[in-house]
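Whether sequence alone determines local backbone shape is best considered at the level of individual chains. For completeness, the protein is quoted in full, as a sequence line and a line of structure tokens:
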Amino acid sequence: MNRQTKETEIELKLNIDGSGKNKISTGIDFFDHMLTSFSVHSGFDIELKVKGDLKVDCHHTVEDTGIVLGQALNFALADKRGITRFGSCFIPMDETLSFCAADVCGRAFLVFDAEFKRQFAGDLETATVEEFFRAFAVNANITLHIKNYYGTNDHHKIESMFKAMARTLKAAVKAEGDIIPSSKGKL
């Protein structure tokens, strides 16, 4: 997948049947760390190169990365034949606990429940975390619920949410036969 706007240039290769190999460069080190963690824990192979207008701030880079990653997942799943469809996972990280649930159903929706104490985690604006998950869910065409139950360290909160989404999607896209997982016969 490729996306080019006046704000960002993105090149992405996604293999959802991979082993978590990755090569990620967004220009935002903390975001690279989160996407690397997502790749490793989902088992999705990700090659990602992003050039964004980071002189403005990191919003466009983070949101547009979510858009492209979501589009790539939606494309990779095609008609969703044979997937498990649902997944959920709790992830603890030291003092933090986060939860994610997903329905790979063809209906885009995000519920995001987390608060951050600081404006930045590393070089990532914490306000862009929700924007990433929203852009991803909408463009992947999935229902995604993410909640941080507690924690004091924003780094741990964000990382536990990325890992929870990774494990959730790993379960939801797992091959489980050859039917479309819906009583309607279509997702």
User: Anything to note?
Assistant: The chain has one domain: 2-172. The chain has four helices and ten strands. The chain has a mean pLDDT of 97. The first strand starts at residue 2 and ends at 4.
